[in-house]
Write a sequence for this structure.
């Protein structure tokens, strides 16, 4: 049976629950190492999110009438409506709950984004239809925006009124019905797209509690792992190195991505798969998502230069050029390192965050759909991963909840014993606990957002989008 994280718990108790799931076997090592690392992560990423949201709401935007605008100097067309609006909405919701649910401006930004999208972009058939310049299909755009909408719902459901919850639940239900009835979720488009459908169906199940969406979620997992080869030859999951541990820690694999000439491994799109799988595991605790996340991370690891955080995407099925480099952007280091026992990844989390902050400081980077989407599914997900691992942060959150529904049978996660063994066998790198300021994160956020950060931007070689 697939195991899930128990849900409907306070953030303050999540780290304790994870320790309990380990049966106390290595609880002191888990708590001490993860709490220290997570505190260092939060001290860096919370101000980062606050500053970038301020930028998106002002001179890199602006945010007006529920829409995150695009600076015409950098991205005049807005080629991914779901990315441009969904990512900042998730980041605003994340910062709101992680700063004590005090800054109402953050709550309103997230709420207005969702309500405006429902009002002007959701059609009568349930799909979210992008502006004409976007060019994406309604199914893909519904997923791109839907996963951010669903994540935002999980974060804010206890902070909005009953009428808003009902409206959002109805919208999510309609969007999921569209994807199911249109056949999108049972058509293998590409690995990153189908995994996104899977994440969305999980979030809709959690928001509505409807068992048919639980069934659709499980069916989507089965489909993406092994689609009918008579219809989709060569597509689905490919194991490159079979793991000996049930959580996939020592294995490698990928979902196929079809290019113009062949179907198979594309490194860049595998990192998109990794980003989706990592957040799905973070939100659900589903052991299938953990296994896939570990194996995807191992698949791309050798191509990541952690000194520069540039990533060799060459010779893929979709990006066929040799020696093509882009910036590595995924929450996998944080999710696996802080929440899944991958001590080998922990020391690289802070350097990755600092490099991403440099990239975001350049407007032509931050304004791209790639970076706006990553603001939700990468940057915000890293912040949430830190929240699950730091009891002190949890105690500062004043009862903020990560919401969801536990399935009928909630059991021990698969792979737990493997995690226990790694904590015993791996040497832990100590991470210095940052000194906490007496100023609350809520006040820091308000100060950051009140300023226009026109400071001198640090120059870095931009990663290609």
């Amino acid at each position: 049976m697939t195991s899930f994280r128990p849900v409907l718990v306070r953030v303050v108790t999540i780290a304790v629950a994870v320790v309990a799931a380990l049966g106390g076997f290595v609880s002191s090592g888990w708590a001490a190492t993860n709490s220290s690392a997570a505190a260092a992560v939060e001290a860096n990423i919370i101000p980062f999110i606050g500053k970038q949201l301020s930028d998106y709401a002002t001179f890199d935007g602006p945010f007006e009438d529920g829409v995150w605008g695009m600076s015409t100097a950098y991205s005049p067309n807005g080629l991914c409506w779901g990315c441009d609006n969904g990512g900042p909405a998730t980041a605003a919701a994340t910062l709101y709950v992680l700063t004590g649910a005090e800054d109402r401006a953050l709550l309103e930004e997230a709420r207005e984004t969702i309500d405006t999208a429902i009002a002007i972009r959701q059609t009568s058939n349930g799909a979210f239809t992008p502006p004409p310049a976007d060019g994406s299909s309604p199914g893909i755009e519904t997923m791109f925006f839907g996963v951010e909408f669903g994540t935002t719902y999980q974060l804010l459901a206890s902070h909005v009124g009953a009428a808003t919850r009902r409206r959002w639940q109805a919208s999510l239900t309609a969007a999921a019905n569209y994807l199911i009835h249109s056949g999108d979720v049972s058509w293998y488009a590409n690995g990153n797209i189908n995994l996104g459908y899977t994440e969305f169906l999980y979030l809709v199940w959690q928001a509505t509690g409807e068992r048919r969406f639980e069934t659709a979620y499980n069916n989507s997992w089965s489909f993406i792992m092994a689609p009918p080869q008579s219809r989709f030859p060569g597509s689905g999951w490919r194991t490159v190195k079979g793991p000996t541990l049930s959580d996939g820690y020592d294995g490698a694999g990928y979902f196929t991505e079809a290019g113009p000439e062949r179907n198979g491994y594309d490194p860049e799109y595998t990192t998109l798969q990794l980003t989706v799988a990592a957040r799905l595991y973070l939100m659900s605790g589903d052991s299938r998502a953990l296994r896939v996340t570990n194996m995807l991370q191992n698949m791309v690891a050798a191509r990541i230069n952690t000194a520069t955080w540039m990533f060799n995407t060459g010779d893929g099925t979709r990006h066929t050029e040799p020696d093509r480099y882009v910036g590595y952007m995924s929450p996998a280091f944080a999710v696996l390192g802080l929440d899944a026992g991958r001590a080998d990844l922990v020391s690289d989390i802070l350097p990755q965050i600092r490099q991403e902050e440099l990239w975001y400081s350049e407007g032509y980077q931050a304004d791209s759909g790639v970076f706006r989407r990553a603001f939700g599914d990468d940057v915000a997900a890293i912040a949430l991963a830190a929240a699950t691992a730091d009891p002190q942060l949890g105690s500062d959150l004043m009862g903020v909840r990560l919401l969801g529904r536990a399935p009928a049978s909630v059991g021990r996660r698969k792979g737990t014993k493997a995690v226990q063994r790694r904590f015993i066998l791996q040497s832990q790198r100590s991470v210095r606990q940052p000194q906490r300021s007496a100023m609350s994160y809520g006040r820091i956020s308000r100060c950051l957002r009140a300023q226009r950060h026109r400071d001198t931007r640090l120059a870095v070689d931009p990663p290609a989008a």
In short: Residues 1-28, 72-77, 394-465 have pLDDT under 50 and may be disordered.
